[in-house]
Automatic annotation (TrEMBL):
Pathway: Phospholipid metabolism; phosphatidylethanolamine biosynthesis; phosphatidylethanolamine from ethanolamine: step 3/3; Lipid metabolism
PANTHER family tied to this protein: ETHANOLAMINEPHOSPHOTRANSFERASE (PTHR10414), ETHANOLAMINEPHOSPHOTRANSFERASE 1 (PTHR10414:SF47)
Family annotation (Pfam families): CDP-OH_P_transf (PF01066)
UniProt name for this protein: Ethanolaminephosphotransferase 1
Cofactor: Mg(2+); Mn(2+)
MF terms (GO), sorted A to Z: ethanolaminephosphotransferase activity; metal ion binding
Length: 385
């Protein structure tokens, strides 16, 4: 019995009819990574459950986040005159990031190898991917930091939102077309990030202070690449794929309102969190950037997971995520100064969001495991006695 039945009976019926459909045209992925993953998966024992591989990879990203939080909680360690993150931490960060990326690539191959592919596996994989966005963005931020040589916390906040919306675009595409077009930026970014961690361990963070050309710094390149990739590759490709489906009359939602409904809750989340940032009496983003990013990234993951459930079950997307309802008074209490200790309010709300998201995830996994008669983290059959 699930903790709470978030998945409706109509959605369970939709999951029964679900067939995986994805397109991966990235040359790096097709010609380099997939052959590498096909090689790696041969070394995995056949009793190892794919979801366990997925979860292990995700936990390596969480470990990176926690490790950097310990050595650079407020994103100042990379600045001149501050105690820098030890080199061995960057070595581990690079190794863990690439390991997480590799495990994310082999989990599906392990599922096909062991004949254990289920809709739960895909949902679990993409659900954790949506939460992983905040962990790798925050970890990368520690390379540059927030002071003179780095990127401002407000700038990083908007960069985070560019990454989050780039992620949800792929699932919006699938909600409308039935096909998951895997974004090119993901594979390139994961390989690049892993290499940058290792390079940082060797040359030190001081290297990133130097201009590449004239006054154009590495931090500017970091910002430019993320924004440029999103607006010149990810967004145009998503719109083109949806327009193609519209012209071929295979678009699932004919009205504009229904087609763009999945963006309502993410946009409202962006508005609420930005109101808090802009009108915060204590400048909360300057005080607690890591915690604020974590809150936003987790709330976004919760919204995205509900969209993934809808697109996989071929049901209508929720107009409004319930998590936004209590967030509204929290933001009001913060910006009006009714709660004097804004940092405490943020910590409490972040804890509530994380617990709510974990509860949602556990409930959905339990519900789908029960529905399909499987164990989430084992290939053994459940005991029905």
């Amino acid at each position: 019995m699930a903790l709470y039945e978030y998945v409706t009976q109509d959605q369970l019926a939709g999951f029964d009819k679900y067939k995986y459909s994805a397109v991966d045209s990235n040359p790096l992925s097709v010609y380099v990574m997939h052959p590498f993953w096909n090689f790696v998966v041969k070394f995995l024992p056949t009793w190892l459950a794919p979801n366990l591989i997925t979860f292990t990879g995700f936990m390596f990203l969480v470990l990176n986040f926690l490790m950097l939080a310990f050595y650079d909680f407020d994103f100042t360690a990379s600045a001149a005159g501050h105690e820098h993150v030890p080199s061995w931490v960057w070595v581990l960060a690079g190794f863990f990031n690439f390991l997480a990326y590799t495990l994310d690539g082999v989990d599906g191959k392990q599922a096909r190898r062991t004949n254990s592919s289920t809709p739960l596996g895909e949902l679990f994989d993409h659900g954790l991917d949506s939460w992983a966005c905040i962990f790798f963005v925050a970890t990368v931020y520690s390379i540059f930091g927030r002071l003179e040589s780095g990127v401002g916390v407000a700038t990083l906040y908007y960069i985070l939102w560019v990454v989050l919306f780039s992620f949800i675009l792929s699932h919006w595409e699938k909600y409308n077309t039935g096909i998951l077009f895997l974004p090119w930026g993901y594979d390139i970014s994961q390989v690049t990030i892993s290499l940058v961690y290792l390079v940082t361990a060797v040359v030190g963070v001081e290297t990133w202070y130097q201009p590449i050309l004239w006054h154009f710094l590495y931090r500017d390149l970091f910002t430019f690449m993320i924004i440029a990739c999103s607006f010149t590759v990810t967004l145009p490709m998503s719109l083109i794929n949806v327009l193609k489906a519209h012209r071929s009359k295979t678009l699932k939602h004919s009205s504009l309102y229904e087609a763009f409904l999945p963006f309502l809750s993410p946009v409202l989340l962006f508005v609420l969190s930005t109101i808090w940032v802009v009108f915060s009496p204590s400048r909360i983003l300057e005080l607690q950037p890591r915690m604020f990013y974590l809150m936003v990234g987790t709330a976004f993951a919760n919204v995205t997971c509900k969209l993934i459930v809808c697109q996989m079950s071929n049901t209508r997307c929720q107009a409004l995520s319930w998590l936004l309802l209590p967030m509204t008074p929290v933001v009001v209490l913060a910006v009006t100064g009714v709660v004097a200790n804004e940092s405490l309010l943020l910590y409490l709300w972040t804890a509530a969001v994380i617990l709510a998201h974990i509860h949602f995830g556990l409930s959905v996994v339990q519900q789908l495991s029960s529905h399909f008669g499987i164990l989430a983290f084992s290939l053994k059959k459940p005991n029905t006695d």
